[in-house]
Every structure is written in structure tokens, then in C-alpha cells.
Amino acid sequence: MLYYLFEYLDKTLDVPGTGVFQYITFRSALALMLSLLLSTIYGKRIIRFLQRQQVGETVRELGLAGQNEKAGTPTMGGLIIIFATLVPVMLFAKLHNIYIVLLIVTTLWMGTIGFIDDYIKIFKKDKEGLKGIFKVFGQVGLGLIVGTVLYFSPAVTVRTDTAKSDIFKVPTETVITPAPIEEKSTATTIPFFKNNEFDYAELLAWTGEGYEKWAWLIFIPVVIFIITAVSNGANLTDGIDGLAAGTSAISVLALGIFTFVSGNIIFSNYLNIMYIPNSGEMTVFIAAFVGSLIGFLWYNSYPASVFMGDTGSLTIGGIIAVLAIAVRKEMLIPLLCGIFLVENLSVVLQVSYFKYTKKRFGEGRRIFLMSPLHHHYQKKGYHESKIVTRFWIVAIMLAILSIVTLKLR
Questions:
Q1: Where does the chain bind Mg(2+) (predicted)?
Q2: I need a surface site. Which of 30, 76, 106, 214 has the fewest CB within 10 A?
Q3: What 3 state SS string does 196-244 have?
Q4: Residue 310 annotated as binding site
Q5: Residue 308's closest CA among 83, 104, 141?
């Protein structure tokens, strides 16, 4: 909202200094600082409110060191993340930007699903929470909305030929270089390859002429799958103090770099990557989101004063998925969000192997001492703060490797 106020002061009243609000970097810095302040200052008040409402975590008997001491710790702390993200976004972002609208919808949508799940666990005393099928329906619903908007909205376009732009040509009397055309496309980026653009529509080329108009049959299901997988991965990663918030902040910060360069025609030309008009505005949202995650860590680091609950973990996963899809870097998710991936895989492998061995040998066997993977290391005797720190280090390495793909092909 402040963006529009300062735009009016700059363009209509010509007030000196107000034009600085036109810069994404300036507004991102303000969003980051405000979200940090909101999450650290008002986070304590939200925690006290949750304590008064007796919103305490019910701890299962898992046989893990220090687990019983966490009983009664306030949960639903994801409300801190949502609050500290949306307030700066509302103040400093262009609210008419299609990507900002999608991210706000994603935050509220996934936050609501997570809130309902936590509410059932706490107030209805049902440890299972919201039934899995309803969670999936919610994730699929968001995927349908995001996929449909990204595919059909005229505001979502790309330029893949930025090197031909007249911005980078010296005009002469004999050479005229037309500016590149913004176009609708389902193209995405394949990491580590030189000619690294892939169009989902090509999967339908075998159907004959005009196959491009049916690309939504591929694109929208892919979006649904990614949102469902990443949000569940974030949910499984939220198991020990500071793990989900810390690893997520690292991944989102890397996505912020991708977003900034993809939304800037000069950087996208230099790096020879896809230019996505208007996507740079997501940098403001990312700055606010990173600030809220870091501020949340103030209270969630060991020993945690509050847990994010599904209210936070599902929201985090949904936002990361939508950011990656919007900036056409969804194929980097297995690398960038490698922690989410291995946590997910550890559960899938553990359950599958247990069922297989029980059917074949009459007795279920396990690959890990316990799943998700972070609990395996707890069972081995590692302190959870050591596990979290090491997972953060791995997440940093994966984020750096992901960023390197901008030039490593």
C-alpha cells in the first residue's frame, strides 16, 4: 500500500526522494527489516496468546532423548511466519502484480489447511489431525489455481531471446534490431545443460499440429504434483527445533537470487537465462518471507519456545513450490530442497521396505532406526542441535550448487 502512496507522491506531486520506492532492492530491504521486527517483537506476544489458549504440543512416545520435555510447548507458531510475511508484503509490494497475488493466495490457502489440522489436533484432541485425503484435496486445489493462472493469465509471459533486445545494441542507420516479444509459454529450465530450456508442450508433439494449445494437460498436473510434494516434504522436515525454518530460509534465499535475475532483463541477458517480466517483484515477498523465518528461529531454535505446526510447515512448502514454478526453476527443487527430498524419501523407503519384508518374511524390517531421517540420527545418539546445524550446512551447500547452475552448463 505504501508503494502506491509513494508512487503518487513521486509522479503526481513530485516530492523529492519518493522515487526510491520504485526500486525493488529498496522495498525488499524494508520488507526484510520489518518482517524481522514483527516476528521477533510480536512473536513473543503471539506465543503468550497461544499459551493462554493452552495451545500446547502433544508429544508422542517415540523413545527420543529430550522428547518428553517438549510436551506443552505452544504450537501453531506458523501464525508468526504468516503475519510477519504478509504485513510487509501488503505495505511494500505491488499488490496488482500477478505473482504477488498468487503468493498471497498460497500463503493464506496453505496456512488455513495447516491451521485446521493443528486445531483438530489440539482442541479436538485428535492426534491424527485433518485426514490426509482432505490435506491432499487442499493441495490439489491450490495446484489447480496456481497452474491455471500461470497458464492462462495474459500477465504471465516470458522472453527467451533477450540477447536480441535493442537495449544491448548500438543503433546504426543500417541495422534495426527489434525488441524481443513477450509470449505465453510453458517453457522451463533444465539445470546443468547448455541448451537448458524445455517446453512441457513438446511432450504432446506426437499428437500432431496444434499440440501447443493442449499443453495445460501436462503443465497443470505437474504444478499440482510439485506443490503437493514440496508441502509434504516441508511438513515431514518439521520434526526438531529449528530444522524446517532454517533449511527453508536458505532455500528461499537462493530462490530470491533466481527471482531477481530472472526479473531483470540486463542480468537475464548477461546470464543467458529466461527473462520473466514482472517476476522480480517476488523478491519483495521473498525478503519478507526470509525475514519472518529468521525471526521465527529466534523462538524456535533449541530449546524451542514455540513450534510452527502444520500451520507453518505446509505454508512454507507451498510458498517454496509456487516460487520455484513461477520463476521456471522447478526442476531444481530436488537439488535446492534436497533436505525435504531425503526426508520424504526416508519415510517412503522405510514404510515400503517394512511392508515388503513383513509380507515376505512375516516380520517387518527397517532401513533406518526411525524415519523421517532426522529421527534416525536422534536414535543414533546425536543431539538435535548438532543434527540441525549439520542439515543447515548441507542446505547451504545445495543452495550454492543451485545458484551455480546459472552459469554451470
A1: 235, 310
A2: 214
A3: CEEEHHHHHHHHCCCHHHHCHHHHHHHHHHHHHHHHHHHHHHCCCCCHH
A4: yes
A5: 83
pTM, whole model, 2 decimals?
0.92
Domains held by the chain: number: 1
- Domain for residue 197, yes or no? yes
Q: What is the pLDDT of residues 199-234, one digit of tens each?
A: 998 988 888 888 888 999 999 999 999 999 999 999
Q: Which residues of 20-38 are buried (b: 16+ CB within 10 A; e: fewer)?
A: ebeebeebbebbbebbbeb
Which is nearest to 28 in space by CA: 290, 276, 403, 275? Answer: 290
Judged against a pLDDT cut of 80, whether residue 181 lies above it is answered with no
Residues of the domain holding 388: 24-404
What CA–CA distance (Å, rounded) separates 197 from 219? 15
Nearest alpha-carbon partner for 387 in 296, 301, 290: 301
- The H or E element spanning position 292 is helix 282-300
What pLDDT, in 10s, does the model give residues 294-329? 999 999 998 899 999 999 999 999 999 999 999 999
- For residue 210, count other CB atoms closer than 10 A to its CB: 8
Q: For residues 271 and 268, what is the distance between their CA atoms, to the nearest angstrom?
A: 5
